[in-house]
Amino acid sequence: MRGKPKLAHAFDSPEAKLAYNRRLFTTIAPRYDLITRVLSYGQDARWKRRVAEIVRQEAPAGRALDLACGTGDIALSMAADRAVVGLDLTMGMLRKAEGRRQKAEARWIAGDMTRLPFADDSFGVVTAGYGLRNVPVLETALSEIARVLASGGIFVSLDFNRPRSPLMRAVYLGYLTAVGSAIGLALHGDADTYRYIPHSIRRYPGAEGVAALLSGAGFAQVRIEPKLAGLMTIHVARKL
Question: Strands 149-160 and 64-67: what pairing?
Fold first, then answer.
């Protein structure tokens, strides 16, 4: 089918990964919330609430930017306390976010995490849910996050982790591949649709690797909160 994302070429170059992600997340936007619940073993909402809790506790003031905002879970959970901007690569996700009936409001913008359309030091908080793993060049995204974050502000990221144990990694990625293939066939007629997730995890630096990159990008007080026996991770870091 013309326009269908091609997993075999998704990681050929940064440009290929960006284009693949734009097409993929446009395709899955209508069912995104369901899929995240399934692939997170039903814990997705709980982890996102934890992200919002960290923000309230450690950054009680300041405008917030939620990257890879998807359908708006994290952005809207912060919007009761502060002004929030949600940024996503795909209009399909943003339309879902805009259509949600919530007491709190957020501003929604289409954009690329590696080229943020904001001035330096614009935000007191930056969050990302399942975002870092998908950027074409992780170091570039972290540099942009540091640029738009004010000194003393915090960055909080939730994402899948790449387990250090070879056995756990094999079991985990095997599960995601099998379940993702079945869901992809059932919902989209394409087994590759959700196989992207384990493929992207294999290429992700993992919790300790991301922490090191955050330190190198100008962040301090970097800490890791493992979730689900380390299969998921929340990173918290403060800009110097």
Answer: unpaired
